[in-house]
Amino acid sequence: MQCEIITIGDELLIGQVVDTNSAWMATELNACGIEVKQISSVHDDAQHIVAALNEAFERADIVLTTGGLGPTKDDITKHVLCDYFHTELIPDDTVKAHIEALYKDRPDVLNRLTETQWLVPKAATILPNRVGSAPLMVFHKDNKILVSMPGVPYEMKIAMTEQVLPYLSAHSAVFQRSGLSGAAGLNSIIHKTALVYGVPESVLALRLEEWENNLPADLHLAYLPKDGIVRLRLSQYSNNLSAEGGLSAQRSDSAAVFKQLLELLGDDCIATEDKPLESILGDLLKERHATIATAESCTGGKLASLLNKQPGSSAFYFGSVVAYDNSVKHNVLGVRQEDLETFGAVSEPVVRQMAEGVRRLLKTDYAIATSGIAGPDGGTAEKPVGTVWIAWATPTETFAQCFHLGRLREQITDRTCVTSLTKLIKYLHIS
Amino acid sequence: MQCEIITIGDELLIGQVVDTNSAWMATELNACGIEVKQISSVHDDAQHIVAALNEAFERADIVLTTGGLGPTKDDITKHVLCDYFHTELIPDDTVKAHIEALYKDRPDVLNRLTETQWLVPKAATILPNRVGSAPLMVFHKDNKILVSMPGVPYEMKIAMTEQVLPYLSAHSAVFQRSGLSGAAGLNSIIHKTALVYGVPESVLALRLEEWENNLPADLHLAYLPKDGIVRLRLSQYSNNLSAEGGLSAQRSDSAAVFKQLLELLGDDCIATEDKPLESILGDLLKERHATIATAESCTGGKLASLLNKQPGSSAFYFGSVVAYDNSVKHNVLGVRQEDLETFGAVSEPVVRQMAEGVRRLLKTDYAIATSGIAGPDGGTAEKPVGTVWIAWATPTETFAQCFHLGRLREQITDRTCVTSLTKLIKYLHIS
Questions:
Q1: Residues of A with CB below 8 A from B279's CB?
Q2: Do B43 and A52 touch (CB under 8 A)?
Q3: ipTM of model
Q4: Is the dihedral of CA A380, A382, A383, A386 positive or negative?
Q5: Partners of residue A15 in chain B, C-beta under 8 Å
């Protein structure tokens, strides 16, 4: 079963907004066995939207669109879909009642523009949008399905989870039974990921070469390097459709093949799931009933933000001190003023005292401290931009290391987070 | 001059990676007067890449691709481009010397896979990739241009800035002189944005209706609502191409029209540039030579991370205490234990003491404190998920307010950041 995603909105094409919707949707669709063939972003322009719909329907059985459903003049998706499916707008009482309830305390919002939100295409099946005013619209065309959703990420996510995926599952069963559209049906797509730290992509590829050359035809290996980590992904598509689109008679045992991969990776593999590093660390800490704090200079709260992003983080994450200014390093974390002056903020003695200081202050088992030159200014010949000291304080020891993590501010911050989390994960694995 | 972006990689289509490249590229291209017509993400699949190239060349003069240039088996872009442009791979001595210099300290990386990186298509113009091993490849076809770049964001950004944009500028001048390809040439694209807080989209649209209906044909207004802010964008495309693709004889005075918009918005407009809220606040603080700190519970370091993301933030941002656990609120920020017990962590007395505590501890002029129930657990009938208290401490007073900011963890965190920054921006505007 193949799907395409079309995200609609000028803001995407001028770079005002990053399309985060598509990746989220693709993950959820894959989990349901639906493959995403292409993602396209197009302008709020009738002719262009129609062209994109035509192209997508040529390749896929399901087309999902987001965006262009607001009440203002620049949003035209609903009108374009009416023309495309030769239908007209009619009022929908259920949608009307929902919108009136949604804005019952906001009479100013229940105005004549908002009223246009309960006009829906006559030919569409309407699914409720529990948290917004734009209804979800489903169209059927030659045994194919189009679903139009709002572009606001929170609304789209709730719509997908509660309405769209259940609807597609129900209707794809119809496809399978009737044998229509040549679809592979909702057979499962499997992705297994191993995270490797400290081995360059090409070195890794040589190590795996023989094994990779002997992979069964329905299994496919991908290398995804970023910030010093290579994510190795083994993918398996549905029974009758291989990754290359050809037919494969038999489904291989992907679990057994993945196990071979892990044996080849040995200790270089730091995780066997495609989870963020902060979740991997969080799970290790939870297992040990241990807690963590961070003292951050160059990462400036990013580690904190990563660690508590996940639900349930209060079980292991206590807090952080973002010590951006040197006065905070001294006054709050207790770093010796003379060390700041003698060695500078980006130095081993300072980063060690930061880690130990925050561990003592917040009374945690572990602590990570970062101090580096993220640029664009502040670099010297001795400590160029990209120089980063990281320290880890544990119940038994404190250790620190110096790294050179790139040239761009964002890159240096990201790599500092990756490096500091990975080293602690490796430490917990062996301790 | 129209352009299309094609991002290549299975990881984009299975949701393993969010395509942040395209938005960044679109912003830079727009600034050079190049309009982005469509963004497409496709699999590492020869047939599919070729189809996407054909479709893009039908619509645009310039096609930019990212991804698929690594040394491993799953990366096929270079080979597909060779077939597409009927050419073959040949070794390039300049690229070879660059790669050997790049990995001079890593003999293990200078292996036979990495060696394939200095094979380049004979028909391509090669531009140097200063920070990576994959060369940038430029192809010309029927007076149109294709540039293939690596997908790693840092490499792509340096490639675009230092190589691709200068190359396109130089070559589009050739287009203009020869009058080829019907391109509008590198005339300027103008986007002017006003940020409005606290007015729902439909209410705003009614207020602007008459003015919007009378906009000149070459100006286009777009509404972009998110987290309680509406970004109003007035766009003007090139001289001979209106937003709808039609011809407009004359270019309007967009500055004068934008001024009219600002008059209609009055005090509801909190900024007249499309800058992040943290930059707007940063600039206001820098003007006043004032400093800020944050004490964060439910935002967990996100405010800190936003405030110091921008270069030069050390002028106004001192640091933060992420007080996720109540012990940190009490021990580090000095929140009274009895208030934590009597009123709970999400309460006015606690959030006020957090703001005042961090302002005192870090010795700053201003402070923001947040404490809320971000969920999914922890909600009660009295304080449901989404309840957030925010406090602002200033040199003269402390004020606090309770908000209800949604139901999803991520949404609540984002909206808390937006609300806390916006309120302080408004306060600084009038104080």
A1: none
A2: no
A3: 0.89
A4: positive
A5: 22-30, 36
